[in-house]
Amino acid sequence: MSDDIKAVILAAGKGTRMKSETTPKVLHKIMGKTLLGYVLDNVKNITSNQYVIVGHMAEDVEKFVDENYAKARTVIQSPQLGTGHAVSMVCPELDEYDGLVLILCGDTPLIKEKTLKDFVKFHKAQKSDLTVMSTIFENPSNYGRIVREKDDSLKCIVEEKDATAEQKQIKEVNAGIYCFDWKKFRASFGELKSNNSQGEYYLTDIIAWGKSRKLKVNAYVLENSDEIYGINSRQHLAMATKMMNLRNLERYMENGVTIVDPANTWISEDTQIGQDTIIYPATYIEGKNKIGKNCQIGPCAHLRGDVEIADNIKIGNFVEVKKSKINSNTNVGHLSYIGDSELGERVNIGAGTITANYNAITGKKSKTQIKDDVKIGSNTVLVAPVKVNEGANVGAGSVITKEVPAWALAITRSPLKVLADWVGKKKKS
Ligand code: UD1
Ligand code: CA
Known about the structure:
By secondary structure, the chain is α/β, with parallel strands linked by helices. It contains nine helices and 35 strands. Strands 12-15-18-21-24-27-30-33-35 form a nine-stranded parallel beta sheet, covered by helices on one side. Strands 5-4-1-6-10-7-11 form a seven-stranded mixed beta sheet.
C-alpha cells in the first residue's frame, strides 16, 4: 500500500433540518467562513487530494470549491441515497488507488488538523484496516451509537432511528470520521443494504461488513468531544459558532492579547493578533485578518475580513473595516467605514469618514489610497478610486473626488453664512 492519503468529504445532503431555501447546509458560515471551508482547510495539508461529494444545490457548492481549493474536486451524487452511497460515488475516481482514505462530513467544522493527524497516526500504529472516530456525549441524541462486543472491541454502529431503547442509552457516538485501507473496503460499497428505518445506504454499515470479512476495525475515542460537534440545525450552528469563538479567544489570550469581555467578543479562527493588543467588547472580527501588536480595537468595531493592521493602531467604536491595509500608528477613532483602502503611517481619520468604494451603477468597487501623515477631517467622503498623497490635509465635511497632492489642503465646503440676530428677530415677530 502506498503512503498516500486522500480525503472524501460528504456534502451532498439536503440538510433538511437547517430549513434553508437559499443556502446548502455546508455553505452556511461561522464568522465569515463556510462549514465546508473549515473542513477543507483542516484536511488540505494532510491529504494529497480532496473529493467533495455534492448533490443538493450542487452548483453552489461546486463553485465554492473550484474558486477556493485548487487541489479539491467535486463529485456529483444524485439522487442522495445516504452516506454510504455518497462515498461510493468516488469508486470510479479511485479505481486503481492503493492507499488510505479519510472520510469526513462537511457539517463538522470544529475538527482540528492536529486531531486528524493523531487519528491517522493511531490507525497506522494499530495496523488497523479501518478506524472510526468516536467520542462520549452526555446527550448523544441524533448521533449514531458505537456498539461494542463483550470484550470491548468494536461491533457495529447503529443510527438513533434504528436503535433499540437499550442502544439509545449508549453515550459513545460516531463522529462521522473514518480512515481506512481503500483497497480492502472498496467492494463494501457495492454490497451495502438500505433495509433500515431511513431506507438509506449507511456508511456506518461498513464496520459490520469489515468484521464479517475478518478485517481489523477499531475506534479512536476522541477526548475533546467539542471537535466533532455536527451541525444539522440553526441551533447547532449558533452553538458551534460559540464553541469555535471561545476556543479562538482562549488562544489569543494565551498569546498575550487582552479580551476585555470574552462573552461579548467574536473573533474568527483565521485572524492573527499581536501581543498587547486590546480588544474591547462587542467587537466582531470575521474572515481572514492580521492585527499587529499594541493595537486597540473597539468597542463595537467590525472587521469584515482581508484586513491587515500593523502595530500601534487604534480602530475605535462603530468603525467598520473591510479588505484594507493600515500601516502603523494610524487612528480610525470613530464612526467610520474603511473599505478597499490602504492607509499609510501616522494617518488620522476623523470621525464619520467614509471611503465610498462602491459604484452602484457599474457595481464595481474601487480603491482609496491614503499616504503617510495624512489628516482627514471629520465627516469626509472619499469617493474611490481616489488618492490622498503624503502629508495632505482634508477639511472637515469634504467630498474628495480627485487626487490630492502631497502637503496640500483639500476642502469642499459651501461658504459659511452668519445672519446676525436671525433667531432673535424671528422670535420678536
Ligand atoms: C451521520 C452518521 C452518524 C454520525 C453523524 C456524525 C450515517 C448513516 N450516520 O449522521 O452515525 O453520528 O453523521 O455527525 O452515516 N450526505 C451526503 N449524501 C447523502 C447523505 C448525506 O453527502 O446521501 C452528507 C451530508 O451532506 C452530511 C453528511 O453526509 O454532510 C452526514 O449526513 P447527515 O444526514 O448529517 O447524517 P447524520 O444524521 O448527522
Ligand atoms: Ca450531520
